[in-house]
Amino acid sequence: MTSKKAPARKSHPSGMSRREAVKLAATGAAFGSILAFAVPGREAGGAERMSIKVERMAFKLYRKEILLQTIALPDTVAEELMGGNRIALKFYRNNVWQERDIPFDWA
Amino acid sequence: MTMDEPGLPSALIFDLGRDSPFSFKCQVCSTCCYGKFIRISPYEALRLARYFGLTTTEFYAQYTEEGGTVLRVKPDASCIFLTPKGCSVHPDRPLVCRLYPLGQIVDKEGKERFGSMPAHPDCLGVAGADGTVEAYLESQGAEAYFYFDKMYAAAYKQMAAKLDSIGRKSKTRKVRRKKKNNSRNRASSDCLGSPWLDIDAAVATYCAERSLRKPDDLESLVKVHLAAVEDWLARSFSQKSRRQDFRRKNTSRP
């Protein structure tokens, strides 16, 4: 015999289920992102002077013109890279780990 | 993080209004089509999709990443729509491409201001003060985009208000969560961040549920899309609808 749990049992204090809350958060984030809005009470570039910032970094793997995969870097790693550090690609070939620097120039 | 390397603009100053003197004569050098992060709204996606004769669902799958919020770029960091002859989607290009080199912000009171970005060192465009910001926006066909963005911004504010209320209530309950890796939480390139971005899919579902005819023209599609989003916001988060959903799911089980 199985007992069915009512959805309210797993609900958020607001009365909303977790699933709905996650869906709302994802939709809010997507719309906020494309409309360049931030959290409530703020607006994009609200300050008189807006610095040009690096918001995110990602490795993008292409086959010719086709994007195969995007791998986003955590913000903390991106911050380190801004300090003039290098990016290297490490790969396993012929039973040994090999490493190659990826040439790049922030300018 | 601030990039202060030589050759890169370090700051934007939003000190222009619609009647401020401004002009820009693009020389089609395509310099501005490289290395950009072009975010697209549902309306922009709809226009671009129709330009190719696609549904928005197909367009998001083929041309966007970051959960459908950003246009893809080519390996040389150029826009996916850039060709040797220039922009291949020029009549339906996104708002940010129309505004360049202007940037726009809207403050809390709804007042808009514009800023002129320092030109890229290789940009051949000629900036001047022969016209006004208003005239430039008109020449670029930007008004329709502002109009629909305002409508989507209103829908976003409803979402933000609901999220804000959830956040406040959450603070009263201590929840232990594991901190997850940022990169693992991001949507993959072939997955929409929210199904509500996809106008064609959302409108088709909304109209089918109500036995309505799906509109063909862009303005009606956007309006029905916004109605569907608002309906979802109002309906999905009420206790009553959750109970109904729960009952429907349980009765449909074998």
List keywords for this structure.
heterodimer, A: alpha+beta, two-stranded antiparallel sheet, two-stranded antiparallel ribbon, B: about 250 residues, alpha+beta, 9 helices, globular, disordered N terminus
Largest sheet of chain B: 2 strands, antiparallel
Cross-sheet strand order for the largest sheet of chain B: 2-9
Q: Enumerate the spans of chain A where pLDDT stays under 50 for 5 or more consecutive residues.
A: 38-52
Q: Greatest interface and its residue counts?
A: A-B, 59 and 72 residues
Radius of gyration over C-alpha positions of chain B, nearest whole angstrom: 21 Å
Helix content of chain B: 40-55%
Describe, in plain words, how this protein is organized in 3D.
The complex is a heterodimer of chains A (107) and B (254). With 107 residues, chain A is of the alpha+beta class. In chain A, 22% of the residues lie in helices and 30% in strands. Chain A contains two helices and five strands. Chain A has helices at 18-34, 75-81; strands at residues 49-51, 57-63, 66-73, 87-93, 96-102. The longest helix of chain A is centred in the N-terminal third of the chain and has 17 residues, at 18-34. Chain A starts with 17 loop residues before the first helix and ends in a 5-residue tail after the last strand. Mean pLDDT of chain A is 68; it is low at 38-52. Chain B has a two-stranded antiparallel sheet. In chain B, helix 1 (42-51) crosses helix 2 (56-63). Chain B is α+β, with helices and mostly antiparallel strands. Chain B starts with 10 loop residues before the first strand and ends with a helix. At the A-B interface, helix 1, strand 1, strand 3 and helix 2 of A face strand 1, strand 7, helix 5 and helix 9 of B.
Topology at a glance:
The complex is a heterodimer of chains A (107) and B (254).
Chain A: H1 18-34, E1 49-51, E2 57-63, E3 66-73, H2 75-81, E4 87-93, E5 96-102
Antiparallel strand pairs in A: 2-3, 4-5
Chain B: E1 11-13, E2 21-25, H1 42-51, H2 56-63, E3 64-65, E4 70-71, E5 82-83, E6 86-87, H3 95-99, E7 102-106, E8 112-116, E9 126-132, H4 133-139, H5 143-170, H6 182-185, H7 199-209, H8 218-236, H9 239-252
Antiparallel strand pairs in B: 2-9, 3-4, 5-6, 7-8
Helix pairs in contact in B: 1-2, 5-8, 7-8
